[in-house]
Design goal:
Phenylalanyl-tRNA Synthetase, Chain B, domain 1, 39 strands, Phenylalanyl-tRNA Synthetase, Chain B, domain 3, OB fold (Dihydrolipoamide Acetyltransferase, E2P), 812 residues, alpha+beta, 6-stranded antiparallel β-sheet
C-alpha cells in the first residue's frame, strides 16, 4: 500500500511532520512504513517563469533565445532553448543557476540529479533552463496535459497562466510530496485504502480524523426507475449497490484528482473512470461503470456462470468459465465477471449518455480463486480478495456520486438500488482489561484504555466486559486482538521488561522424535550424511523404478498447482529421492558415499481425495562404494537394537521390490510385522539414475517402529552360574539360508540359549558341488543353576534332529 503524505494530511488536519517523522511514528504504532519516495528528490531552485520574448539564435537554426521573467517585480533572465513548443506568454518551470533536475535531455537519471549552471550555448549567454516533465523526473503517462516533446506548459492546466511568477513550480505539479510505502498485513483490510491509513495516522498523532466528504445527491428521478437488481447467490455476493447518472459529460478529470491518481501510479483517463479509481484508492472499494444502454431489460442479475460458459472481458480476451465463477448479468447476457473485470459488450464509449454505477461486496476467497482460475488479476480483484465489509459498498457509491456532482460530470438520479440480503450489524467482542494487562505485562488503566479505543472508533460497553468494534475493523475478533490495540498506542517501547509469569512446564520430545533422534545418531555414527529431497515428484519416477502399472505406489496424489510436471505429485516412496542424490554424487565422482533421509511419504486413502492423506515417516539409507549388502544389514540390526527392539529380526528374501536386485533383497520382519526392506539396487535402475557402482538402499517405516520400540531399560544382575559353549559344523544344500538354520536352533534350545554366532562358511569339492558348510558357536546358560552335561546333550540332540528335518546334518 502506498500513500502520498499530502493526501493523508488532507484527512488529518493539523498533521505537521516530515516524512521521516511520520514514518517513525506510524511504525511504532503498528502500521509499518517501509520507505518513502520523495517526488522532489534531485529537484532544486525550480520556479514558475513566463516567456516574455523569443528571438532566433544567430548561429543555430534549432535554438531560440528567450527572455524569461522569474518574479513579480519584472526580473528577467536569458535562456537559450531548443524546445519546439516554446511561445511568448508560456508559463513554464524554470531551473535557476545552480539548481538541479532529475534527468538530462537523453533521459539519464544519475543518483544526485543534474546541476544546471549558467553558461553559453553556441556563443549566447544562458542563465538557466526551462524544463520538460521528464526532466522533473515524472512520466508523461501521468501528466496527460504535457506535450510529447518540449517544455511543460502551465497554461494548459486550469489557472496555470495565472500562477505567481517566482513561486515554487513543484507545488502546482504536485511534487512537494512523498509517497510512503507500507507493509500492510492481510488481516488489516481497512489499511488498503487512504481512509484507513489516515485513520491510523489520526490515532497515532492524536489528531482529528476528517473522513471523505459524502453529500446527499440526486435529482427528482429515481434510480429504481432505471435499473433493478437481483442476487441469486447470497454467499458469493453479500451486497450490491447501484446508482444511475444521466447526461454524462465525458471529459478530463480535474487537475487535483489527476495529480492524486498520478502520485499513486494510476494513469488519468477521463472523469468517470478516474472517479471510480479515486474512490477505490480512497476507500479500498472497487467500483465499475456500465453504459446503461448496453444493459438489456434494465436488469442486473448476480449469479454463477454455467460450466463451459465463455465470456469476453474488456481486454478483448475470451475466457472459459465454470460454475465457481460469479457473473454480473443483465436480462439476456453476462456483462462482467464479478469483482474482476467488466465485459467488452458493456464498456463505456464516448457517446454514452447514462451510466450505471456498481459497488458490491463479493466473497474474497471466491474472487481470489476465480481470478487465478481464469488467469486474470486486476486492481479490483486484489482489493476484493482481502475480504471487504458490505458497509463500504454504500459509502463508496455515495462518495462517487458526490464527486460526480462536484466536478459536473453528470446528473445523479435520486435514491439507491441497494440489495443487502443478510445485514451485518455491529459486532461485539469480549473484553477483559485485567487479562490484557497480564498478557502485555502492563498496568493500563480503564481511562487509558477508553482513550486509546476512542481514537480507533471502538466503544467500551457499560458492563466493561465487551466492546463494540467498528465495521472497518474486521481483524478484531478476541480479547488478544484488543490487547494488541492497547499495546500499539500505549507504546511498544514503553512496555516494561518483565519475567514470564505462570506455571512452568518441562519440555520434551515426543516418542516419535526420540526414535528419529536415534536414527540420526546411529546413521551418522556409521558415516551416513543427512540428505533432504523434495516431497514433490514426477510420475515418470515410477517407470524409472520399474514399478508395474498396478503398483500401489502409482496411486499418487496430484498437486493442483504444480511447479511443473517434474513436481506434479506427492511422493509415495522415498527411494527416488535417495537414488537421485546418490546419482548426483556419482556424477561428481564422489567415492564411498553414504546418505540417509528421514521424511514423510503421502498415501491417499482414496482417490480423488476426500480426506487428508496418511503421512508415514520413513528412514531411508543409501550407499555405494565401501560396504555391501551385509554391512547395510548390520546397520539395520544395530538401529533396531538401539530403539529397544532386542529380539533379532527375521528376513524374507521374497521382498517383491522391482527396483532391487531380484536375488539380493529382503523384507525386514520383527514379531510378524514388516518394518521395512533393504537390498542391492537393480542394475537397470542403477543405470537409469547414473550411478556407476553397486548401490545398496534400505527403507524403514518409522510409524511401525514406533509401535514396536521400547526405551525401558531393565536391570539384570551378573550371571552367577557358568556358561557352556558347543560348536557345530553343518552340511546342507546351498539354497538353505542361515535364517532357517538359526530359527530351528533357537526354537529347540529353549530358555537356556544365551547366544548364537555363525563363525564359518565353507564351500568346496570335499563336501560336494551343491553343498555348503556352516559352523555355529552356541552358548548355553541357566540363570538358576549350573548346567549338567546331560541337559546340554539332550538340547543338542533336539537341535540336530530339528536341523535334519530341513536337510542340515553334522559335517563328518
Amino acid at each position: 500500500m502506498n500513500t502520498p503524505l499530502s493526501w493523508i494530511k488532507e484527512m488529518v488536519p493539523g498533521l505537521d511532520c516530515t516524512p521521516a517523522e511520520y514514518m517513525d511514528a506510524m511504525t511504532l504504532s503498528g502500521t509499518k512504513a517501509e520507505s518513502a519516495q520523495y517526488f522532489d528528490k534531485n529537484l532544486d531552485k525550480i520556479v514558475v517563469g513566463r516567456i516574455n520574448k523569443i528571438e532566433r539564435h544567430p548561429d543555430a537554426d534549432k535554438l531560440v533565445i528567450c527572455q524569461v521573467q522569474i518574479d513579480e517585480d519584472g526580473k528577467e533572465i536569458q535562456i537559450v532553448t531548443g524546445a519546439p513548443n516554446a511561445f511568448e506568454g508560456a508559463v513554464v518551470p524554470v531551473v535557476l543557476d545552480g539548481g538541479r533536475v532529475a534527468c538530462d535531455h537523453s533521459g539519464n537519471k544519475p543518483g544526485e540529479g543534474f546541476v544546471i549552471k549558467a553558461g553559453k550555448l553556441r556563443g549566447v549567454d544562458s542563465a538557466g533552463m526551462m524544463c520538460s516533465i521528464d526532466e522533473l523526473g515524472r512520466d508523461k503517462t501521468y501528466y496527460p496535459e504535457a506535450d510529447e516533446e518540449g517544455l511543460y506548459i502551465f497554461n494548459k492546466i486550469e489557472g496555470g497562466s495565472k500562477l505567481k511568477l517566482g513561486s515554487d513550480a513543484l507545488i502546482p505539479l504536485g511534487l512537494r510530496d512523498a509517497l510512503v510505502e507500507y507493509e500492510v498485513t492481510s488481516n488489516r483490510v481497512d489499511c488498503f485504502g487512504m481512509e484507513g491509513i489516515a485513520r491510523e495516522a489520526a490515532a497515532t498523532f492524536r489528531k482529528e480524523f476528517k473522513p471523505p466528504v459524502i453529500k446527499e445527491t440526486g435529482n427528482n428521478e429515481k434510480a429504481e426507475d432505471y435499473i433493478s437488481v437481483e442476487i441469486k447467490d447470497n454467499e458469493l455476493c453479500k451486497r450490491y449497490v447501484a446508482r444511475v447518472v444521466k447526461n454524462v459529460k465525458i471529459a478530463p478529470s480535474p487537475l487535483w484528482m489527476q495529480r492524486k491518481l498520478s502520485a499513486v501510479g494510476i494513469r488519468p483517463i477521463n472523469n468517470i473512470v478516474d472517479i471510480t479509481n479515486y474512490v477505490m484508492t480512497e476507500l479500498s472499494q472497487p467500483m465499475h461503470a456500465y453504459d446503461i444502454d448496453t444493459i438489456d431489460e434494465r436488469k442486473i442479475v448476480v449469479e454463477r456462470a454455467a460450466n463451459g460458459e465463455k465470456f469476453t472481458t474488456l481486454d478483448g480476451v475470451e475466457r472459459e468459465l465454470d460454475d465457481t465463477v460469479l457473473l454480473i448479468k443483465d436480462g439476456k447476457k453476462a456483462v462482467g465477471i464479478a469483482g474482476i473485470m467488466g465485459g467488452e459488450n458493456s464498456k463505456i464509449n464516448e457517446g454514452l449518455n447514462t451510466v450505471l454505477l456498481e459497488a458490491a461486496c463479493f466473497d474474497g476467497t471466491n474472487i481470489r480463486l476465480s481470478s487465478k482460475k481464469i488467469g486474470l488479476r486486476t486492481d479490483a480483484s486484489g482489493k476484493f480478495e482481502k475480504g471487504l465489509h458490505p458497509e463500504t459498498a454504500l459509502l463508496a457509491m455515495n462518495r462517487a456520486c458526490t464527486l460526480i456532482e462536484e466536478i459536473g460530470a453528470g446528473e445523479v438520479a435520486c435514491g439507491v438500488v441497494d440489495v443487502y440480503p443478510v445485514k451485518e450489524g455491529d459486532r461485539e467482542v469480549e473484553f477483559d482489561l485485567d487479562a490484557c494487562n497480564r498478557l502485555l505485562g502492563t498496568s493500563i488503566s480503564l481511562d487509558m484504555a477508553r482513550e486509546y479505543f476512542d481514537r480507533l472508533g471502538i466503544k467500551i460497553n457499560d458492563d466493561l466486559k465487551s466492546v463494540v468494534v467498528p465495521y472497518f475493523r474486521q481483524d478484531l475478533l478476541r480479547n488478544a486482538d484488543l490487547a494488541e490495540e492497547l499495546a500499539r498506542f500505549f507504546g511498544y517501547d514503553k512496555i516494561p521488561t518483565t519475567l514470564p509469569s505462570g506455571e512452568s512446564t518441562a519440555g520434551g520430545e515426543t516418542f516419535g522424535m526420540e526414535i528419529e533422534g536415534k536414527a540420526r545418531e546411529l546413521a551418522e555414527q556409521f558415516g551416513f550424511c543427512e540428505g533432504m529431497t523434495f516431497s514433490f515428484e514426477s510420475p515418470k519416477v515410477f517407470d524409472r523404478l520399474l514399478l508395474p502399472l498396478d503398483a500401489k505406489e502409482r496411486e499418487a496424489i496430484e498437486i493442483k498447482n504444480p511447479l511443473g510436471e517434474d513436481y506434479s505429485i506427492m511422493r509415495t516412496q522415498i527411494i527416488n529421492g535417495m537414488l537421485t542424490s546418490l546419482g548426483t554424487n556419482s556424477a561428481r565422482r564422489n567415492k564411498n558415499v553414504r546418505l540417509y533421509e528421514i521424511s514423510n511419504i503421502y498415501l491417499a486413502k482414496k482417490l480423488p481425495l476426500e480426506d487428508y492423506p496418511e503421512e508415514r515417516k520413513q528412514f531411508c539409507l543409501g550407499m555405494y562404494g565401501e560396504g555391501d549388502f551385509f554391512v547395510l544389514k548390520g546397520v539395520i540390526e544395530e538401529f533396531l537394537y538401539k530403539v529397544g527392539m532386542k529380539k533379532l529380526p527375521s528376513y524374507n528374501a521374497d521382498a517383491g521390490k522391482t527396483f532391487l536386485h531380484p536375488g539380493r533383497q529382503a523384507l525386514i520382519i520383527y514379531e510378524d510385522a514388516v518394518v521395512g526392506y533393504f537390498g542391492e539396487v537393480h542394475p537397470l535402475v542403477q543405470e537409469a539414475y547414473g550411478i556407476a557402482e553397486r548401490t545398496y538402499v534400505a527403507n524403514i517405516d518409522l510409524s511401525v517402529i514406533c509401535k514396536k520400540a521400547n526405551f525401558t531399560v531393565k536391570y539384570e544382575g551378573i550371571a552367577k552360574f557358568p556358561s557352556v559353549v558347543r560348536d557345530i559344523s553343518l552340511v546342507m544344500d546351498k539354497s538353505l539360508t542361515a535364517g532357517e538354520i538359526e530359527k530351528i536352533i533357537r526354537s529347540e534350545s529353549g530358555a537356556i540359549l544365551e547366544s548364537l554366532e555363525l563363525f564359518d562358511i565353507y564351500e568346496g569339492e570335499r563336501i560336494g558341488a551343491d553343498k555348503k558348510s556352516m559352523a555355529y558357536s552356541i552358548t548355553f546358560r541357566n540363570k538358576e543353576k549350573t548346567l549338567e552335561e546331560s541337559e546340554i546333550s539332550a538340547v543338542m540332540e533336539k537341535i540336530l534332529k530339528g536341523l535334519q528335518t530341513i536337510g542340515a546334518v553334522l559335517r563328518s
